[in-house]
Amino acid sequence: DQQVKQNSPSLSVQEGRISILNCDYTNSMFDYFLWYKKYPAEGPTFLISISSIKDKNEDGRFTVFLNKSAKHLSLHIVPSQPGDSAVYFCAASARQKVTFGTGTKLQVIP
Amino acid sequence: GAVVSQHPSWVICKSGTSVKIECRSLDFQATTMFWYRQFPKQSLMLMATSNEGSKATYEQGVEKDKFLINHASLTLSTLTVTSAHPEDSSFYICSARDSKRRRLEQFFGPGTRLTVL
Q1: Residues A97, B49: C-beta atoms closer than 8 Å
Q2: What is the pLDDT of residue B28?
Q3: Which of A15, A103, B23, B55 could lock A87 by a disulfide, CB 3.0 to 4.6 Å apart?
Q4: Helix (H/G/I), strand (E/B), else coil: A84
Q5: Per CB distance under 8 Å, which residues of B are interface residues toward A?
Q6: CB contact under 8 A, A41 and B43
Q7: Quick one: pLDDT band at residue A2, thresholds 50, 70, 90?
Q8: Confidence at B104, pLDDT banded by 50, 70, 90
């Protein structure tokens, strides 16, 4: 049972445009959400997070939006840069345990 | 800051042998460390949660006698894959949580690629 889903396995975006990565979850007990970025053969690196009491959190080019009623969160990257090309995992937490989604491979085309 | 290292970065072993993977937090103390496994094109699968000075908590379906975890100090956790078989070949990643940092943020190691022949 995949509690955290990223339905788009891949996404291609032109440099300078907006990248929108989506994530859906099923467990209403999740109260904290995170996005990680991962390059091949490396461990994930933390990008941005959001608590369930908020609906938006912004950090530079990265913004995470949370829609609790829809159990949906998204990561916006504006403007997209070639160095953003990587696999992005969303993650959700309940009671200190973190569950990861399946990842979306983002390719930013110069 | 918040660097996590893993050793070795890759290992090839024969079927039936045991392999130990080390995870170290280099510049912070980690009372909790996590071990994940990633199959190609799949998500990170949490195998176990390792707490310093106590027994690890294994996720459902993970054999604790096969994947031995020891968290002997605040900066080191080890995963030993015992009697390895080809199906154990995978990418193993550890992470550590610094209780002084942002809530629930985990810092990941670079991973260890295990190939069992």
Answers
A1: yes
A2: 87
A3: A103
A4: helix
A5: 4, 6, 34, 36, 41-44, 46, 49, 91, 93-95, 102-111, 113
A6: no
A7: confident
A8: low
